[in-house]
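Sanity check

After download, print the first record. It should look like this:
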Amino acid sequence: MNNGVVTELRNVVSFAELAVGDQLIIETERSTYTFSMYIPSQRLGALRGGRLPDGHEAFAIGAVSGQHAFWKGGLRVGDRAIFLSPAEKAHDSSARLVTSQVVRIQVVWREPRAA
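Expected structure tokens:
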């Protein structure tokens, strides 16, 4: 533990668990993404990685996979994460980012959570 920061590997993470400053490090088959939450009630944060090396504001929309269909509540290993950039027009394909299959999820909690 360093400065109150706790890192945890998870197979499933619910967006409702995340607070301001928490981060998801999402490793996929092809890339690694970092999503830093700053407005939890809107699932809005900064996303970087993959084709977004400089980072962009994005909404965490949910996840999809053949086994679980669409889940808007969070992300699971085996799913493909879906993000939407509010800076782009919704009909523009660059507004949506769908990752390759997630192989590992690491959560960086800014404050320890109650057990």
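If your output differs, re-run the checksum step. Summary of this record's structure: DSSP finds no helices and eleven strands in the chain.
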